[in-house]
Design brief:
Order of helices and strands: EHHEEEEEEHEHHEEEEEEEH
Structural class: alpha+beta
Number of helices: 6
Strand content: 35-45%
Number of domains: 2
CATH class of the largest domain: Alpha Beta
Number of strands: 15
Radius of gyration: 21 Å
CATH architecture of the largest domain: 2-Layer Sandwich
CATH superfamily of the largest domain: START domain
Largest sheet: 8 strands, antiparallel
Distance between the termini: 65 Å
Helix content: 25-40%
Length: 293
Amino acid sequence: MATIDKKILTVEVIINAPVEKVWTLWTDPKHIVRWNNASDDWYTPRAENDLRVGGKFLSRMEAKDGSNGFDFSGEYDKIELLKQIEYTLADDREVKVSFVSNGHETTVTEIFEAEQINPAEMQQFGWQSIMDNFKRYIEKSGHLELLHFEIVINCSAESVYKTMLGKETYTEWTSEFNPTSHYKGSWKRGSKIVFLGTDGEGKTGGMVSTIKENIPDRFLSIEHLGIIQNGKEITSGPEVDGWAGMLENYTFAQAGRKTLLSVDIDSNQEFKSYFSETWPKALKKLKSICEKQ
């Protein structure tokens, strides 16, 4: 029986960031879902990563129009902290990723076996595009910090999901951020939605956003596009610097009769202390509302 020669491809980027930060953003699922796409019409709604020899990983990759999707998964063969990762994909192809530090710069190189279905040039372009997207993400993230909050609620994921997004109950639990908090729009994937509230002078402000992903009872991702000032939507210009592109992700994990609700949000330094103080209060109120129903 004839054997098929393996074609080995290589992609590489030089990133303006120290290797410690590069390694973390490469391996942390909360960050993987933000950069792991080759083009704007694809995205990664969820990722799992058990970073150890023998550990498994999975990134769910889907077309935004819902036309296609697949699991990119495998098992780790070798881990050298801050230096190298080797793994075998589910289809038995081998991949090596190296991280070479040069002070404030890091070179990331991926060497992988091409599959037999698509042209090698197409595969190399796709893997390089993901690598380039990772570079853009990490270099843009300098002014942002990923904040994580979670709470266990004694209800099903379905109940928590419905309570969190319901018109009346949404206003109730988000009153911790603003007593007049409410939203207009749809939670459907790809839909526009605005989050509104008034200040002490009665002026309307808030965020202009889109629903990046909505898997009922499992996962919700909101991408912020701009701000609302005095009732006017602003999606370009210096006013939205630091806001446009920020993500707000919710993950619902049910175990028995309880649900772990995890919230991962991008934050700038200006709002970090405010979010760190207010989000736990808002989640505590959501928990109380859910458990009273």
